[in-house]
Amino acid sequence: MALPLGTTLPGGQAEAWAQQSPDQRIAYNVSQPTLVPVPSSLPADRAAPAVLLVPGGGFQFLAMDNEGYDVARKLDRLGVRVFIVKYRTAPLTGGFAGFKAALTGLFVKGGPAPLEVVPHAVADLQAAIRLVRGRATEWRVDPRRIGVLGFSAGAITVLAQTLANQPDTRPDFVGMIYGPTASAAVPSGAPPLFAALAADDRFFKSQDLGLIDAWRKAGSGVEFHLYSAGGHGFASHPNGTTSDAWFDQYALWLKASGTLAQP
What we know:
The chain is of the alpha/beta class.
Protein backbone atom coordinates (compact mmCIF):
# COMPACT_ATOMS: atom_id res chain seq x y z
CA MET A 1 0.00 0.00 0.00
CA ALA A 2 1.31 3.43 -0.94
CA LEU A 3 -0.41 6.72 -0.20
CA PRO A 4 0.01 9.72 -2.51
CA LEU A 5 1.74 12.75 -1.02
CA GLY A 6 1.45 15.46 -3.64
CA THR A 7 1.37 16.43 -7.27
CA THR A 8 3.01 14.48 -10.06
CA LEU A 9 6.32 15.85 -11.29
CA PRO A 10 6.10 16.64 -15.01
CA GLY A 11 8.47 14.79 -17.30
CA GLY A 12 6.44 12.10 -19.00
CA GLN A 13 8.55 9.17 -17.77
CA ALA A 14 7.02 6.05 -16.22
CA GLU A 15 8.35 4.93 -12.84
CA ALA A 16 10.63 1.90 -13.14
CA TRP A 17 12.71 -0.35 -10.90
CA ALA A 18 16.11 -1.90 -11.53
CA GLN A 19 18.35 -4.44 -9.77
CA GLN A 20 21.61 -2.89 -8.64
CA SER A 21 22.52 -6.35 -7.31
CA PRO A 22 20.53 -9.56 -6.80
CA ASP A 23 19.20 -8.28 -3.47
CA GLN A 24 19.19 -4.52 -4.05
CA ARG A 25 16.46 -2.69 -5.97
CA ILE A 26 16.47 0.91 -7.14
CA ALA A 27 13.43 2.97 -8.14
CA TYR A 28 13.83 5.71 -10.74
CA ASN A 29 11.61 8.18 -12.60
CA VAL A 30 9.56 8.60 -9.43
CA SER A 31 7.13 11.33 -10.52
CA GLN A 32 4.29 10.58 -8.06
CA PRO A 33 5.48 10.93 -4.45
CA THR A 34 4.08 8.35 -2.05
CA LEU A 35 4.33 7.25 1.55
CA VAL A 36 4.85 3.51 1.95
CA PRO A 37 3.85 2.10 5.36
CA VAL A 38 6.04 -0.92 6.03
CA PRO A 39 4.14 -3.93 7.49
CA SER A 40 4.76 -4.10 11.23
CA SER A 41 5.23 -7.03 13.59
CA LEU A 42 4.11 -4.87 16.54
CA PRO A 43 0.78 -5.46 18.28
CA ALA A 44 -1.92 -3.61 16.38
CA ASP A 45 -3.10 -1.81 19.50
CA ARG A 46 0.29 -0.52 20.68
CA ALA A 47 1.22 3.11 20.09
CA ALA A 48 4.88 3.16 19.07
CA PRO A 49 7.47 5.64 17.81
CA ALA A 50 7.70 6.05 14.06
CA VAL A 51 10.63 6.59 11.72
CA LEU A 52 10.24 7.92 8.20
CA LEU A 53 13.05 6.54 6.04
CA VAL A 54 14.32 8.80 3.25
CA PRO A 55 16.51 6.82 0.82
CA GLY A 56 19.28 8.36 -1.23
CA GLY A 57 20.26 8.16 -4.88
CA GLY A 58 21.52 11.56 -5.95
CA PHE A 59 17.92 12.75 -6.47
CA GLN A 60 17.92 10.61 -9.61
CA PHE A 61 16.76 7.32 -8.06
CA LEU A 62 15.97 5.76 -4.67
CA ALA A 63 17.90 2.92 -3.00
CA MET A 64 14.71 1.18 -1.88
CA ASP A 65 16.32 -1.87 -0.26
CA ASN A 66 19.72 -0.75 1.03
CA GLU A 67 18.31 2.45 2.55
CA GLY A 68 14.68 1.44 2.77
CA TYR A 69 13.28 -2.02 3.38
CA ASP A 70 16.50 -3.51 4.78
CA VAL A 71 16.74 -0.77 7.41
CA ALA A 72 12.99 -0.98 8.04
CA ARG A 73 13.26 -4.61 9.12
CA LYS A 74 15.86 -3.69 11.72
CA LEU A 75 13.76 -0.82 13.02
CA ASP A 76 10.72 -3.07 13.27
CA ARG A 77 12.65 -5.39 15.58
CA LEU A 78 13.34 -2.39 17.84
CA GLY A 79 9.63 -1.68 18.22
CA VAL A 80 9.35 1.15 15.69
CA ARG A 81 6.65 1.67 13.08
CA VAL A 82 8.34 2.46 9.78
CA PHE A 83 7.36 4.42 6.68
CA ILE A 84 9.39 4.90 3.50
CA VAL A 85 9.15 8.24 1.72
CA LYS A 86 9.26 7.79 -2.05
CA TYR A 87 9.97 11.37 -3.01
CA ARG A 88 10.06 12.70 -6.55
CA THR A 89 13.30 12.23 -8.50
CA ALA A 90 14.69 13.86 -11.62
CA PRO A 91 13.17 12.51 -14.85
CA LEU A 92 15.57 10.22 -16.72
CA THR A 93 15.14 9.72 -20.44
CA GLY A 94 16.25 6.77 -22.55
CA GLY A 95 14.71 3.96 -20.53
CA PHE A 96 17.02 1.52 -18.80
CA ALA A 97 20.03 2.81 -20.77
CA GLY A 98 19.34 6.30 -19.43
CA PHE A 99 19.13 4.93 -15.90
CA LYS A 100 22.51 3.17 -16.27
CA ALA A 101 24.08 6.35 -17.61
CA ALA A 102 22.77 8.30 -14.62
CA LEU A 103 24.05 5.63 -12.24
CA THR A 104 27.48 5.79 -13.84
CA GLY A 105 27.46 9.56 -13.71
CA LEU A 106 26.74 9.56 -10.01
CA PHE A 107 28.88 6.74 -8.65
CA VAL A 108 31.74 6.59 -11.15
CA LYS A 109 32.14 10.14 -12.35
CA GLY A 110 30.77 11.74 -9.20
CA GLY A 111 28.47 14.01 -11.15
CA PRO A 112 26.52 16.78 -9.38
CA ALA A 113 23.01 16.17 -8.10
CA PRO A 114 20.19 17.77 -10.10
CA LEU A 115 19.46 20.40 -7.47
CA GLU A 116 16.25 21.53 -9.13
CA VAL A 117 14.43 18.52 -7.66
CA VAL A 118 15.58 19.13 -4.07
CA PRO A 119 12.60 21.41 -3.26
CA HIS A 120 10.26 18.68 -4.51
CA ALA A 121 11.94 16.12 -2.24
CA VAL A 122 11.67 18.46 0.75
CA ALA A 123 7.99 19.16 0.04
CA ASP A 124 7.33 15.42 -0.23
CA LEU A 125 8.99 14.74 3.12
CA GLN A 126 7.01 17.54 4.73
CA ALA A 127 3.79 16.09 3.34
CA ALA A 128 4.79 12.68 4.68
CA ILE A 129 5.35 14.02 8.21
CA ARG A 130 1.97 15.77 8.13
CA LEU A 131 0.28 12.59 6.94
CA VAL A 132 1.81 10.38 9.64
CA ARG A 133 0.99 12.91 12.37
CA GLY A 134 -2.52 13.36 11.05
CA ARG A 135 -3.21 9.62 11.06
CA ALA A 136 -1.18 8.78 14.15
CA THR A 137 -4.15 7.39 16.07
CA GLU A 138 -5.25 5.20 13.16
CA TRP A 139 -1.74 3.90 12.55
CA ARG A 140 -0.90 3.47 16.25
CA VAL A 141 1.90 6.00 16.15
CA ASP A 142 2.86 8.16 19.11
CA PRO A 143 2.64 11.68 17.62
CA ARG A 144 5.30 12.87 20.10
CA ARG A 145 7.87 10.37 18.77
CA ILE A 146 8.02 10.77 15.00
CA GLY A 147 11.52 10.90 13.53
CA VAL A 148 13.20 11.02 10.15
CA LEU A 149 16.25 9.05 8.99
CA GLY A 150 17.85 10.02 5.69
CA PHE A 151 20.73 8.61 3.68
CA SER A 152 22.92 10.60 1.25
CA ALA A 153 20.47 12.63 -0.89
CA GLY A 154 17.86 11.60 1.66
CA ALA A 155 20.05 13.13 4.37
CA ILE A 156 20.29 16.33 2.32
CA THR A 157 16.49 16.31 2.15
CA VAL A 158 16.16 15.68 5.90
CA LEU A 159 18.58 18.52 6.66
CA ALA A 160 16.83 21.01 4.38
CA GLN A 161 13.44 20.07 5.80
CA THR A 162 14.65 20.38 9.40
CA LEU A 163 16.38 23.72 8.83
CA ALA A 164 13.14 25.06 7.30
CA ASN A 165 11.85 24.85 10.88
CA GLN A 166 8.14 24.66 10.09
CA PRO A 167 6.20 23.82 13.26
CA ASP A 168 3.77 21.41 11.59
CA THR A 169 6.54 19.34 9.99
CA ARG A 170 9.12 19.44 12.78
CA PRO A 171 10.33 15.90 13.49
CA ASP A 172 10.93 14.84 17.07
CA PHE A 173 14.35 13.35 16.26
CA VAL A 174 16.58 13.45 13.20
CA GLY A 175 19.04 10.98 11.67
CA MET A 176 21.47 11.68 8.82
CA ILE A 177 23.65 8.85 7.51
CA TYR A 178 26.50 9.81 5.14
CA GLY A 179 25.05 13.27 4.61
CA PRO A 180 26.34 16.84 4.62
CA THR A 181 28.27 18.24 7.59
CA ALA A 182 29.18 21.73 6.35
CA SER A 183 28.15 24.61 8.59
CA ALA A 184 24.56 25.86 8.38
CA ALA A 185 22.24 28.10 10.38
CA VAL A 186 20.57 25.66 12.78
CA PRO A 187 17.41 26.98 14.45
CA SER A 188 17.38 27.23 18.23
CA GLY A 189 15.91 24.13 19.83
CA ALA A 190 16.30 21.96 16.72
CA PRO A 191 15.38 18.29 17.18
CA PRO A 192 18.13 16.02 18.56
CA LEU A 193 20.45 14.77 15.82
CA PHE A 194 22.18 11.46 15.13
CA ALA A 195 24.72 11.70 12.31
CA ALA A 196 27.21 9.17 10.93
CA LEU A 197 29.83 9.57 8.22
CA ALA A 198 32.92 7.74 7.00
CA ALA A 199 36.09 9.79 6.65
CA ASP A 200 36.64 8.32 3.18
CA ASP A 201 33.13 9.14 1.91
CA ARG A 202 33.50 10.03 -1.76
CA PHE A 203 30.91 12.82 -1.68
CA PHE A 204 31.23 14.47 1.75
CA LYS A 205 34.81 13.80 2.93
CA SER A 206 36.00 17.29 2.02
CA GLN A 207 33.34 19.07 4.09
CA ASP A 208 34.13 20.48 7.48
CA LEU A 209 32.09 19.53 10.55
CA GLY A 210 30.57 22.95 11.12
CA LEU A 211 27.03 21.59 11.07
CA ILE A 212 27.70 19.40 14.08
CA ASP A 213 29.08 22.31 16.06
CA ALA A 214 26.23 24.58 14.95
CA TRP A 215 23.67 21.98 16.06
CA ARG A 216 25.30 21.76 19.47
CA LYS A 217 25.45 25.56 19.81
CA ALA A 218 21.72 25.72 18.97
CA GLY A 219 21.13 23.96 22.28
CA SER A 220 20.20 20.59 20.82
CA GLY A 221 21.52 17.13 21.48
CA VAL A 222 24.01 15.70 18.98
CA GLU A 223 25.35 12.18 18.54
CA PHE A 224 28.01 12.18 15.82
CA HIS A 225 30.12 9.26 14.59
CA LEU A 226 33.00 9.86 12.19
CA TYR A 227 34.26 6.44 11.11
CA SER A 228 37.81 6.09 9.83
CA ALA A 229 36.56 4.15 6.80
CA GLY A 230 33.38 2.81 5.29
CA GLY A 231 32.92 4.77 2.10
CA HIS A 232 29.48 5.76 0.92
CA GLY A 233 26.33 3.65 0.99
CA PHE A 234 27.05 1.41 3.99
CA ALA A 235 23.45 1.46 5.29
CA SER A 236 22.88 -2.29 4.97
CA HIS A 237 26.20 -3.36 3.46
CA PRO A 238 28.73 -4.53 6.08
CA ASN A 239 32.24 -4.03 4.77
CA GLY A 240 34.50 -4.84 7.73
CA THR A 241 34.96 -1.28 8.97
CA THR A 242 33.69 0.40 12.11
CA SER A 243 30.88 1.95 10.05
CA ASP A 244 29.24 -1.49 10.26
CA ALA A 245 28.22 -0.53 13.79
CA TRP A 246 26.17 2.52 12.79
CA PHE A 247 22.75 0.92 13.23
CA ASP A 248 23.53 -0.55 16.64
CA GLN A 249 24.76 2.87 17.75
CA TYR A 250 21.65 4.52 16.33
CA ALA A 251 19.49 2.00 18.23
CA LEU A 252 21.39 2.71 21.45
CA TRP A 253 20.88 6.44 20.89
CA LEU A 254 17.12 5.92 20.49
CA LYS A 255 17.02 3.90 23.71
CA ALA A 256 19.23 6.29 25.68
CA SER A 257 17.10 9.26 24.64
CA GLY A 258 13.90 7.56 25.77
CA THR A 259 12.47 7.43 22.27
CA LEU A 260 11.92 3.68 22.52
CA ALA A 261 10.46 3.84 26.04
CA GLN A 262 6.78 3.02 26.32
CA PRO A 263 4.58 6.09 26.83
